[in-house]
Write a structure and sequence with these properties.
This protein is of the alpha/beta class. It contains 8 helices and 8 strands; from the N terminus they run βαβαββαβαβαββααα.
């Protein structure tokens, strides 16, 4: 099984970053895979230039990531991801006014799990560049039991803005929400609960079981490489 994990152009004029990622995809050898799974159904037609997408599901979250930190009266904002001009446009006001931890080099595995067990963390999700996509870190943070502030997601994979996470569209809205959290850290506690419950739909032991079951039946019926 090959898994497409990066955004691609969705038609029309594409951002240069998306064109670069499509160029990288051109190096794939399709015959090395029985089936291709994409994290985003919106890119299937573009990916079809090089590989045929068989299923579209968000990347599953490893079971050990799932947790439920205690609520805290001392919120701390966290962003995990490399710095880009678009992201800094959002982050700079937060960095100047609130306690924000920016992990620029990425955070994975046991280190990610350990870092998310601190009470009161509020995860920030921002697009790499100003184009629509779904960052897989959103489901990671939700599974870890963190409140998530995010730019609009596309696709949403069943997540509902204002219910499972807090949607922010520009730095001003981000600062407004951050101010409300700073004044009342438990204001959005019910959103954190809902997001954690919705994250069960991303649990790896469930998602991979379904995908592999379908894969075996599909290859048995229609053949593989």
């Amino acid at each position: 099984v090959g898994v497409l994990t990066e955004p691609l152009p969705r038609g029309g004029d594409a951002h240069p970053d998306l064109e670069r990622r499509l160029h990288d995809l051109a190096a794939v050898v399709p015959d090395q895979f029985d089936r291709i799974v994409s994290f985003d159904p919106e890119i299937a037609s573009t990916a079809a230039r090089y590989v045929e997408v068989w299923r579209a599901v968000p990347l599953p979250v490893a079971d050990e990531v799932y947790g439920w930190p205690e609520p805290s009266r001392q919120p701390r904002f966290v962003f995990v991801g490399r710095s880009t001009p678009h992201r800094e446009w959002f982050l700079l006001p937060l960095k100047h006014h609130y306690d924000l931890l920016h992990v620029d080099h990425g955070l994975f595995g046991d280190d990610f799990v350990a870092a998310t067990r601190t009470p009161g963390q509020v995860a920030v999700n921002l697009h790499n560049e100003p184009y629509p996509t779904f960052e897989n870190r959103v489901s990671l943070h939700l599974a870890a039991g963190q409140l998530v502030l995010s730019e609009p997601l596309s696709p949403t994979h069943g997540l509902e803005p204002g219910i499972d996470f807090i949607e922010v569209r520009d730095p001003e809205e981000m600062m407004s929400v951050a101010g409300r959290i700073d004044r009342d850290p438990l204001r959005f506690e019910w959103v954190r609960w809902r997001g954690r419950l919705k994250a069960e739909g991303f649990r790896a032991s469930r998602v991979w079981a379904r995908v592999v079951h379908d894969l075996l039946l599909d290859v048995a019926a229609f053949g593989g490489r």
